[in-house]
Amino acid sequence: MKCDELLAALNAYIDGEIDPQVCAELSRHLEGCNPCRVVIDTLRKTITLYKGEVPYELPPEVHARLHECLKKKWQEQFGQSVS
Ligand SMILES: [Zn+2]
After folding, report:
1. Per-domain boundaries in the chain
2. Cα-atom radius of gyration of the chain, to the nearest Å?
3. Which residues surround ligand 1, an ion (CB under 5 A)?
């Protein structure tokens, strides 16, 4: 799995609908990729915050904002744009 593939998989991750196999690949990638770990950490914290209030449902606009934020982070980390 490459970094941009991981970013694509994050959508499912946020929704909690991630395929177990994808999840395993994701974990494997994270073991060897520090920038991606940072992004996932941020994501986990955001999800945990939301979990405190509502049962694991991100409002669509928050969802969108989170994606924008992650994309920006990715660009900062890798110096290139991903879509
Ligand atoms: Zn990576």
Report:
1. 3-78
2. 12
3. 3, 33, 36
